[in-house]
TrEMBL record:
<feature type="signal peptide">
    <location>
        <begin position="1"/>
        <end position="19"/>
    </location>
</feature>
<dbReference type="GO" id="GO:0045296">
    <property type="term" value="F:cadherin binding"/>
</dbReference>
<comment type="function">
    <text>Cadherins are calcium-dependent cell adhesion proteins. They preferentially interact with themselves in a homophilic manner in connecting cells; cadherins may thus contribute to the sorting of heterogeneous cell types.</text>
</comment>
<keyword id="KW-0472">Membrane</keyword>
<keyword id="KW-0325">Glycoprotein</keyword>
<dbReference type="GO" id="GO:0034332">
    <property type="term" value="P:adherens junction organization"/>
</dbReference>
<dbReference type="Pfam" id="PF00028">
    <property type="entry name" value="Cadherin"/>
</dbReference>
<dbReference type="GO" id="GO:0007156">
    <property type="term" value="P:homophilic cell adhesion via plasma membrane adhesion molecules"/>
</dbReference>
<dbReference type="GO" id="GO:0016477">
    <property type="term" value="P:cell migration"/>
</dbReference>
<dbReference type="InterPro" id="IPR027397">
    <property type="entry name" value="Catenin-bd_sf"/>
</dbReference>
<dbReference type="InterPro" id="IPR015919">
    <property type="entry name" value="Cadherin-like_sf"/>
</dbReference>
<feature type="region of interest" description="Disordered">
    <location>
        <begin position="749"/>
        <end position="772"/>
    </location>
</feature>
<dbReference type="GO" id="GO:0099560">
    <property type="term" value="P:synaptic membrane adhesion"/>
</dbReference>
<keyword id="KW-0732">Signal</keyword>
<protein>
    <recommendedName>
        <fullName>Cadherin-10</fullName>
    </recommendedName>
</protein>
<dbReference type="GO" id="GO:0005912">
    <property type="term" value="C:adherens junction"/>
</dbReference>
<dbReference type="GO" id="GO:0044331">
    <property type="term" value="P:cell-cell adhesion mediated by cadherin"/>
</dbReference>
Length: 793
């Protein structure tokens, strides 16, 4: 009501201003100050009239006439109508948008104006004398305002709004707010006063006409997302306060109902049936069950559980997070012979809290029955235990039973079972098993010190179906028996000073034993019962499995005896008692006053000054390096080529050849090898000179065989013949050279063993004479004699 009253008052004021006369005049005569009697200071003050005065003009926007739009008339009291005055206009748009008749002061607008572009113009006017150009009036400023008309429709901030609201919301729940604006003048009239209304979206939503807030119009029972999720609402904004003739603008609002957890899950069927073989492994899925929830996202998440049934301990159900299905899995091994079917009662419910306001008496959970049938499978034998552990003493005799295993056919046929040992687990073949009753026994002696545990596998196989087999691990532990004597923990060697005192400890010894008694090791040390050493040294048992060797004299002499071998008897404390004797080497040395060794005898010094491992390694490396250098030097010397006597091999004429090789005479043992004469029967190959070009007419080497004789004349004749051949050989070098005469000789008792030079064939040989040469040749005679027998047969 207050808004309407203010609007009416504003309209009246506007009409009053428009009706105010443009020619309103206030005349003021300017002069001196006037006293009460009209005089002041001897001067007469006169009032001058001001020719014009106005505040503002008004002009309607968007003028559509063809003529210029008349705004008003400017007139001065000094204008007598004689045409001597001139009106001048300056300011915003003067001369372009606004013009004035310089003769009579009429003011016009030349263009169509838009208030939304510019709401008012500031102008200035004055009057001058046409003849003199002098201003007759002071310049006065005035304003031309544009009257607004309703020429702009409301516009929304968005063409499309996206909003959402929870389903099952109460009536009047705020959804979103839309806002529109109008470019018209909000201070004049109702052109910019908007009213909102809903043109599409009834009866689900409503809009506040003044604020544009959209609210739900129906109750929770009607706004159900599962029935309808998306709504399109069209909002209209109208100016002129919604009155007839006002301009309108529209926008679209897409509203989506968001989900709330108002629907419990429900099984798609009440009974499920599955069948699985009894051999199925634990953890393997049996089947899937499905429940449906109309909600979305987290509100549709559910979990399954087994609540009852005879298969409560045999099966489990888990939830597939992706498909929200229940997966039934096996918890324990199944046995067709024991139970052939199971029944489960499975429950499903939401993981999130359920909104029960709209459920009424409907349950929040759902139940389904699952029946699982077990199928019979031909199974291998089944052992009574998953593994066996047995114990036996290490000194048990061969054939002693260690233990037994037992397996049976789990099927209804009850087929007999045969036992065997997997030899891959018993490579040493220490054990065996009775094929009928599964008794495991020893077939070879055992030793705990070699292996304290033996892990073998026993195989059970059905007699009627050999492919049906199963394995079971058997762990055999060997119990210790005191069958090893204790011995020194290491090699002990010490020294004693020539000048010492009786009862001084010179060495502490300890012992080790391969056995492992239950109560731990207990060793006793003592000197051997016999020997001259008893008067020189004694042994003191420390009671902690160690003993000290003490001197019994105050002086020892290297000259009299430089080394003492002290036998120490070591005895264990187990049953049967075992003992051994260890020898302690004691050397007599010269010591200083503090008892430090200075010098021992040569034998002791050599032994004590033994090289360390590092020194031995260094010496070995030096030897290896030296050998490598020698081998490398020999290889380089062998590869070194001799320089020819003549540099050029193409032309041997008119060349002076220098032979700087002098013979060594009879004492030159490097020029020839006399050992070559020991095989004179070898064929001497032709040797050519290196200082001349060989020709094709060289004499071939002549092989001569000397007739052997008992006085070695054949060797002498052979050598003479070879010397003569070499002397007459034109290709022989002029300097002393080595000639090899290879001749074996004759009168060998065994003659030649070569089959190539044998006069008779291999089959004609009689090898019986080899038996007379001794036991080393008897085996050879048997081998060749056997071959002859085979050949004859």
């Amino acid at each position: 009501m207050r808004t309407c009253l203010l609007t009416m008052i504003w309209a009246c004021l506007s009409l009053y201003v428009n009706s105010t006369s443009i020619s309103r005049k206030t005349v003021l005569e300017m002069g001196g100050e006037e006293d009460r009697d009209g005089t002041k200071g001897g001067k007469i003050l006169k009032r001058f009239k001001r020719g014009w005065m106005w505040n503002q003009f008004f002009l309607q926007e968007e003028y559509t006439g063809s003529d210029k739009q008349y705004i008003g008339k400017l007139q001065s009291d000094m204008d007598k109508g004689d045409g001597t005055l001139k009106y001048i206009l300056t300011g915003d748009g003067a001369g372009d948008i606004f013009t004035i008749d310089e003769n009579n002061g009429d003011l016009h607008a030349n263009k169509r104006l838009d208030r939304e572009e510019k709401a008012f113009y500031t102008l200035r006017a004055t009057v001058v004398n046409k003849n003199t150009g002098l201003k007759l009036e002071p310049e006065t400023e005035f304003i031309v305002k544009l009257h607004d008309i309703n020429d702009n429709e409301p516009k929304f901030a968005k063409e499309l709004y996206i909003a959402s609201a929870p389903e099952r919301s109460n009536i009047g729940t705020s959804v979103t707010q839309v806002t529109a604006t109008d470019a018209d003048d909000s201070m004049y009239g109702n052109s910019a006063k908007l009213r909102y209304s809903i043109s599409q979206g009834h009866p689900y939503f409503s809009v506040d006409p003044n604020t544009g807030i959209i609210r739900t119009a129906l109750g929770p029972g009607e706004m159900d997302r599962e029935k309808r999720e998306h709504y399109q609402v069209v909002i209209e904004a109208k100016d002129m306060a919604g009155q007839r003739g006002g301009l309108t603008g529209t926008t679209t609002v897409n509203i989506t109902l968001t989900d709330v957890n108002d629907n419990p899950p429900r099984f798609s069927q009440s009974i499920y049936q599955f069948s699985v073989p009894e051999s199925i492994k634990t953890g393997i899925p049996v089947g899937r069950i499905n429940a449906v929830d109309k909600d979305l996202g987290k509100n549709a998440e559910m979990y399954y559980s087994v609540v009852s049934g005879d298969g409560l301990d045999m099966f489990d159900v888990i939830t597939d997070k992706d498909s929200q299905e229940g997966i039934i899995t096996v918890l324990k091994p199944l046995d067709y012979e024991k139970t052939r079917s199971y029944t489960l009662e499975i429950q499903v419910q939401n993981t999130q809290t359920l909104d029960t306001r709209f459920l009424g008496y409907l349950p929040t959970k759902d139940m389904a029955t699952v029946r699982i049938g077990i199928e019979d499978v031909d199974e291998p034998p089944l052992f009574e235990k998953a593994s066996y552990m047995m114990e036996v003493k290490e000194d048990a005799a061969v054939g002693t039973a260690v233990g037994s295993v037992r397996a049976m056919d789990p099927d209804g046929y009850n087929s007999p079972v045969r036992y065997s040992i997997d030899r891959r687990t018993d490579l040493d073949r220490l054990f065996n098993v009775h094929s009928g009753n599964g008794s495991i026994f020893i077939i070879r002696p055992l030793d705990r010190e070699e292996a304290a545990w033996h892990n073998i596998s026993v195989i059970a196989t059905e007699f009627n179906k050999p492919l049906q087999t199963s394995w079971v691990p058997v762990y055999v532990r060997l119990l210790d028996v005191n069958d090893n004597a204790p011995k020194f923990a290491s090699f002990y060697e010490t020294f004693v000073c020539e000048k010492t005192k009786a009862g001084q400890k010179i060495q502490t010894v300890s012992a080790v034993d391969a056995d492992d008694p239950v109560g731990g090791h207990k060793f006793f040390f003592s000197l051997a019962m016999e020997g001259a050493y008893r008067g020189n040294f004694t042994v003191k048992d420390n009671g902690d499995n160690t003993a000290g060797v003490l001197t019994r004299r105050s002086s020892y002499s290297q000259l009299h005896k430089s080394i003492y071998l002290v036998p120490v008897v070591i005895t264990d404390g187990d049953f049967p008692m075992q003992s051994s004797t260890g020898t302690l080497t004691v050397r007599v040395c010269t010591c200083d006053r503090e008892g430090n060794m200075e010098l021992c005898n040569a034998e002791a010094q050599t032994s004590s000054a033994g090289l360390s491992t590092g020194a031995l390694v260094a010496i070995l490396l030096c030897v290896i390096i030296l050998l490598m250098i020698i081998v490398l030097f020999a290889a380089l010397k062998r590869q070194k080529k001799k320089e020819p006597l003549i540099i050029s091999k193409e032309d041997v004429r008119d060349n002076v050849v220098s032979y700087n090789d002098e013979g060594g005479g009879e004492e030159d043992t490097q020029a020839f090898d006399i050992g070559a004469l020991r095989n004179p029967e070898a064929i001497e190959e032709s040797k050519q000179r290196r200082d001349i070009i060989p020709s094709g007419t060289l004499y071939p080497p002549i092989r001569r065989t000397a007739i052997p004789s008992r006085d070695n004349a054949d060797v002498r004749d052979f050598i003479n013949q070879r010397v003569q051949d070499n002397d007459s050989n034109p290709t022989a070098p002029p300097y002393d050279s080595l000639a090899t005469y290879a001749y074996e000789g004759t009168s060998s008792v065994a003659e030649s063993l070569s089959s190539l030079e044998s006069a008779s064939s291999e089959g004609d040989q009689d090898y019986n004479y080899l038996s007379d040469w001794g036991p080393r040749f008897r085996k050879l005679a048997d081998m060749y004699g056997a071959e002859d027998s085979d050949r004859e047969s």
